[in-house]
Amino acid sequence: MVDLTFTVDAQGTATPLTLPIGKAVIAGWTGRDPVARDKHIAELEAIGIARPASTPIYYRVSARRLMTADSIEVCGGDSSGEVEFVLIGWQGRILVGLGSDHTDRKVEAYSVTVSKQMCDKVMAPVLWELKDVIGHWDQMILRSWAWIDGARVLYQEGTLDGMLPVKDLIERGFGGKGLPDGCAMFGGTFAAKGGIRPADRFEYELEDPVLKRSIRHAYDVIVLPVLG
């Protein structure tokens, strides 16, 4: 279990909230459009990563991998981030956040499950109430930028109508029982523009064009040497 401190932004009212997160789930292959989903699968196959056993699929990771830091340390130069919305169950409510499923791609080539444990998952320190955004959920936008060789490039972008609806995502992952309290679930990602590649810094956002607000975060990637 890990305690993470957030600010809950309820349409202008900011409330601090420390959440004990006891379960972390990374939902994969959650695309609503099978063509877009298969594009991302093909993208990973191109770098040697096998197709998933099912779509969607729900990987468990250690809750202690979740953090809200502004930098992470990784082993070697084969990892990269992925922007995702995050759903957190808490006292009968569902809160919406933003995270990066940073993953070691070299390890992913032989085991996706193991690769998910290799890197920290960095979340933004701001949450929204799901009830405030569910009515226009499909209009919200996920974006990420990668700093590569000193240049900031748009890395991912898409609207949430490209992902499974929240209700379906939760029902499939938890047998229709709802999102448990203290569970953080990453909701899937979009294909990378120009292909998956490492970066020195990863920036990402969830934009709500209806309520005209965004959750943003960024972190530096510190590469540790691999000596054997």
Automatic annotation (TrEMBL):
<dbReference type="GO" id="GO:0003824">
    <property type="term" value="F:catalytic activity"/>
</dbReference>
<dbReference type="InterPro" id="IPR021269">
    <property type="entry name" value="DUF2848"/>
</dbReference>
<dbReference type="Pfam" id="PF11010">
    <property type="entry name" value="DUF2848"/>
</dbReference>
<protein>
    <submittedName>
        <fullName>DUF2848 domain-containing protein</fullName>
    </submittedName>
</protein>
<dbReference type="InterPro" id="IPR036663">
    <property type="entry name" value="Fumarylacetoacetase_C_sf"/>
</dbReference>
